[in-house]
Design a protein that fits this description.
binds 2-acetamido-2-deoxy-beta-D-glucopyranose; single chain; alpha/beta; Aminopeptidase; binds zinc ion; 2 domains; four-stranded antiparallel β-sheet; globular; 447 residues; 13 helices; Alpha-Beta Plaits
């Protein structure tokens, strides 16, 4: 008895030591959270002429700045600047007569504030349960995974959950196939929607899980469920996505290391890594840059998975959407040069139809969507997923920059207020419905 109790005491002591250690680590972790953003600021930049957009993009390249939202004549850009970049950045802007205003004066505090607000949102959020998804807050990787598992189990006749590969850090890259004919009817067109390639763009994955919901739990457009085969990948970059929840909130790339040359700067920008004019324009050779294109086309498992899906179904993909944020933009090929695409008229027509549906169904606080090719609207960049898809034969391919932090919103945090998540998902679905119906007509005509 005595011996046993002593042993138990020992166990209890060890356990509490571990607990103490864990507590201490949690304390250190929480305390030092977002420390890497101390002194960082973000700026709204008003570029109201094409000339100013060009100049701002040149400053971006020169100083290696990180853009949260791109510059456009009708939209303010949102730019992150590290402490050591700020003086030169402001000098450059002043010199060029470009107007700017502070968005967040102290990013570390804003992120801490966001965390506190997140903790305060105690509304029953189905986090980490295998239950249906809540759209009251941004979702952890585990929650989205659990949701897809739940759907696959509940709707086995129409859904299949595919694990395509393991990431650098060992996480599964997964997607759902939804089909009333089990993907066996090769005459059916395919719609492919992927999100979360850029880790920090938290509004992207929920717009994709919402599509899964609209094709399983809450079918209001049965014609679209029947007519198309759907491929839905909410998180193309799970390592990076998880890292933005538990590591650096503003991480954009994946988490890979390209030894030996970038052991201090992990990660590749997935949306610069596709094999289309790879690393020729709008990318950086520096692995520490947020737009590092990788050490070769398709060096990343995440982009290989997306490529493989496109290749496997290339003859029947009618519509491909890549979900990003933010800027309320519908961008189509080309990104890597200024030539008009072979399908420019249809890309523009369908893009405008999607934009109108988005706007009509979206919250008033967000601006209308602007439609055009990336190269004409924003800048040139090579290696994007939509250029790649379009180049190898996807007739309609779009990068959607979803709505973001609403301008003049009194929300003081850094992320888009979660109260808008659901509305963004609903309006995105309205856009997808219109896009799918247009794609159907064009696919029939064989264009
Ligand atoms: C940018 O500046 C222009 C010209 O001064 C002004 O008309 C416009 O409202 C500004 N845009 C934004 C988004 O603040
Ligand atoms: C979170 O809740 C606490 C306690 O109610 C409150 O004092 C604090 O201001 C709240 N923080 C935010 C950021 O809303
Ligand atoms: C996400 O990252 C956290 C912290 O590093 C880790 O504990 C957790 O297991 C990760 N989640 C997954 C699904 O790997
Ligand atoms: C990042 O890139 C590496 C290759 O350099 C790749 O192996 C890894 O899977 C990628 N991870 C993510 C999350 O993008
Ligand atoms: C632009 O890119 C497309 C697709 O890669 C190509 O067909 C076209 O020839 C390119 N234009 C120029 C001027 O290089
Ligand atoms: Zn993005």
């Amino acid at each position: 008895m005595r011996l046993l109790s002593r042993r138990m005491m020992g166990v209890i002591q060890i356990t509490s030591k571990i607990k103490l250690f864990v507590l201490a680590s949690i304390f250190v972790f929480t305390y030092s959270k977002h420390e890497e953003y101390a002194g960082w600021k973000s700026y709204y930049i008003n570029t109201s002429t094409v000339e100013q957009v060009k100049k701002l993009n040149a400053i971006r390249t020169k100083l290696g700045l990180d853009f949260l939202s791109p510059a456009h004549v009708k939209r303010e850009a949102l730019v992150l600047a590290k402490p050591e970049q700020q003086e030169e950045f402001k000098n450059n802007l002043d010199h060029l007569g470009i107007k700017y205003r502070i968005h967040v004066d102290d990013i570390k505090s804003a992120l801490d504030h966001d965390d506190e607000k997140k903790k305060n949102r105690t509304k029953a959020i189905a986090r980490d349960s295998g239950d249906k998804m809540s759209y009251d807050d941004y979702q952890h990787l585990e929650t989205i995974d659990a949701y897809m598992e739940y759907i696959a189990k509940e709707y086995p006749k129409t859904t299949t959950l595919v694990t395509a590969a393991q990431t650098f850090e060992g996480l599964p890259i997964r997607y759902m196939q939804i089909s009333t004919t089990n993907f066996k009817d090769n005459s059916k067109p395919v719609i492919f929607i992927e999100g979360g390639m850029h880790a920090r763009e938290w509004i992207s994955p929920p717009t994709v899980t919402w599509v899964i919901k609209k094709l399983t739990e809450d079918v209001t457009e049965p014609d679209l469920l029947n007519y198309f085969d759907w491929i839905l990948m909410p998180i193309a970059n799970p390592d990076g996505y998880n890292f933005t929840f538990f590591g650096r909130r503003l991480w954009r790339k994946n988490r890979s290391m390209n030894f030996p040359n970038d052991n201090f700067c992990p990660g590749v920008d997935g949306n610069r890594n596709f094999n289309i004019a790879w690393n020729t324009v709008g990318t950086e050779e520096d692995p520490c840059s947020g737009i590092y294109a990788g050490n070769g086309p398709f060096s990343e498992i995440e982009t290989q998975v997306v490529r493989n899906i496109i290749m496997e179904h290339i003859s029947r993909i009618a519509l491909y959407l890549s979900m990003h944020s933010f800027g309320s933009l519908i961008l189509h090929p080309w990104s890597h040069n200024l030539t008009l695409s072979y399908n420019y008229d249809n890309l523009a027509k369908v893009g405008h139809a999607i934009a109108n549906a988005f706007f009509e169904h979206g919250p008033d606080i967000f601006p209308p969507f602007i439609v055009g090719s990336t190269s004409e609207l924003l800048y040139l960049c090579s290696g994007s997923s939509t250029d790649y898809g379009h180049h190898i034969g996807v007739p309609l391919a779009y990068t959607i920059e979803l709505p973001g932090i609403a301008p003049n919103d009194d929300y003081t945090g850094f992320d888009m207020d979660p109260q808008y998540i659901k509305a963004v998902c609903e309006s995105t679905w309205a856009g997808i419905v219109v896009g799918a119906r247009k794609a159907k007509v064009l696919f029939r005509k064989g264009t």
